[in-house]
Amino acid sequence: MDRIRSLFKKREDEQEYAPLTEETDFLGESRHEDEHAVPFSWIEYGIFVWLGIAMLWAWNMFLAAAPYFQTRFQESDWILQNFQSAVISVSTIMNLLAMIILTNIQYTASYPFRINIALYINVGVFSLLTISTRLFLDTPPTHYLWFLLSMVALTSYGAGLMQNGAFAFAASFGRPEYMQAIMAGQGVAGVLPPVTQIISVLVAPPSESVSAAPGEVDDGTGKAAFIYFLTAVAISVIAALAFIPLVRRHNHIVEARMMEEMASSFNSVEEAERAARKVVSMVTLFKKLHWFASAVFVCFAVTMFFPVFTPKILSATPPAEADALLKPAAFIPLAFFCWNLGDLGGRAGALVLPYRERPFVLFVISIARVLFIPLYALCNLHGNGGVINSDVFYLLLVQFPFGLTNGWLASNCMMASSEWVEEGEREAAGGFMGLCLVAGLTFGSLLSFTASGV
Asked: Which one of 83, 100, 205, 403 is separated from 437 by 20 to 30 angstroms, measured CA to CA?
């Protein structure tokens, strides 16, 4: 028993894998700081939250828009069955490739530039998707699938730029709270798209009196998708505008630090940043952050099964008795909402209930989350009836806690990345943890094909 307990205690002899110095954060919790600590600002925190929203809005939009895509693919049974896994795989593979390349470009990296380019890509892609809901509606399913996957690939490349840039940029401030702000924003990005979809469907419900001809989308579904994609354009534009004062604030911080040390030797903020920045190999970062990195990888690999099952599970209420919220067009986004609400709660809870001193425990929890996957088989898959035929069980006892554990676990791991490395390694550590996150998503998306035929 003592041997088991010892696994959950931090080893004092692990000098290369330990936090540096310890102070108190704005919530009174123990945190790790250095002499160049930046004062906490709720305004800056809010901007990082919004960047987190923009970062994952595209990802969650493609998941929650499953009912609309189903109407576009209704003529092809194979595409209808596999498009969700295809979207997930293209998204995560492209994202991973971008992250691998960007993580290895450290010294000359301009993280604000990467963030801005990502936002511009999102504005362009979402504009095209918005237009596609009103034009070219007779496009064959195969052609529309290629168009959709192309849009997914572009947004995934943008997401790679955004994740690498935002995590590294936040880490450079030396405030773990800002890293948590991005994670919280990602949680909000998970909650808002399904809410938007639900409202859109309720405001403009799919037509039930006249069935759409094969290959056509009824007017209600088209209007709902139009509103949905247009909202995504607005999110990215607002993020780009909000990012401007944050970059100015960051430049002032760098200038102040250089004034204290050797500012006269540099001609620009970028040059000063590069001088203070350490180029750190991924091997070195993994040695320092191996449990956190492994926990994030496993956490998101397991998580990637939920978007495959969610569009296939319908309300346990018989269709004849179901109201508008329990019909598939609204119930599927409602299920995504419950998962993402739990995810958001977990990400916010990482501030109130931090747990970053025993990384091995976080790794064990990430593995234990695999127990959620069999629970989906107990629900109402394809409307054929479930072993436990209850919407409450599905939404509140499967989806919500699965999301809650994801958000809490991932946020604690990401927040720890800037605390367990030296100051000059923070940007590299932030990018490295983002890479581990995306690698987990990619691995999980490929595994999800094993469940696509369920």
From this structure: 83
